[in-house]
TrEMBL record:
It comes from the Bacteria. This is Transglutaminase-like domain-containing protein. Residues 1-25 form the signal peptide. The lineage of its organism: Bacteria, Pseudomonadati, Bacteroidota, Cytophagia, Cytophagales. Coiled coil: none annotated. Residues 67-173 form the Transglutaminase-like domain. Keywords: Signal. InterPro entries: Papain-like_cys_pep_sf, Transglutaminase-like. Pfam families: Transglut_core (PF01841).
Amino acid sequence: MKTKNLLTLCLATLLNAGTALTLFAQDAVPQTKVLTFDRTPQLNPTYQYSTPDNAYLTKLRTSYNLDKVVAGKKTDFDKVKAICGWARKRWEHNGDNTPLKNDPISILEEAATGKQFRCVEYGILVSGALNAIGIPARTLALKMEHTDTIAYGAGHVAAEAYLRDLKKWVMVDGQFDVIPMLQNTPLNAVELQQALSAGAPDLKVVSFSGTKAADYFSWIAPYLFYFDTKLDNRYDVERVLGSIMLVPKGYKNLTIFQKVNPIKNMVYTHSLADFYPEIK
């Protein structure tokens, strides 16, 4: 398929989702490579999620009053915005600190003592909090094109949430309190990459923290190349090891992260259908 037609198709698939209250428009779209993906399934992977009545998620929801955080929010998107803004306020970003344990409650307990954490922990918290209120979510690892030859700072972690009322995945970046939008439609990470590469003029962000679209898109654009997420997203169980990486067509499978870190337990696909399944 020709590049122009593919970009048109990618952007045309976005659904009209209603206007958000806090929007910051993009002044100039940073140039990024045109990436292409398949739309038909290749692997048909199995994803696993916990329901909100899970004991761990119930504790997270009740201990941190998440029902109050989303009180009065009628749509899934409004709830996601509220959780993203709440998560951003739990601590200030520190790219060098790691928690003793990497689950949402443990991270929040350490943050309450004044500790600060990385983008990874924002992604874990946003994903956990959304699952706790009944919105399926997962952490999302973003990696630069030449991640295997870059020693430091070659990746970023956010989250993605599945909005059942819109039947689509959306990207949620807790570190920056950002959800990317095209006109009035929230985007997933690949849709954001496609919109940036197409030079879409109507890109903007939802942010309750004042993050500007121009600054955010310029920063995030290089990371929108390889996309991976865990297959098992359950809580309070021994998770099955394994992740799936979405690789642009024509590019190699990524097997090394930041020069020296082997990427293990990964399956690879070019398929958007594999990476963005519909959840009932």
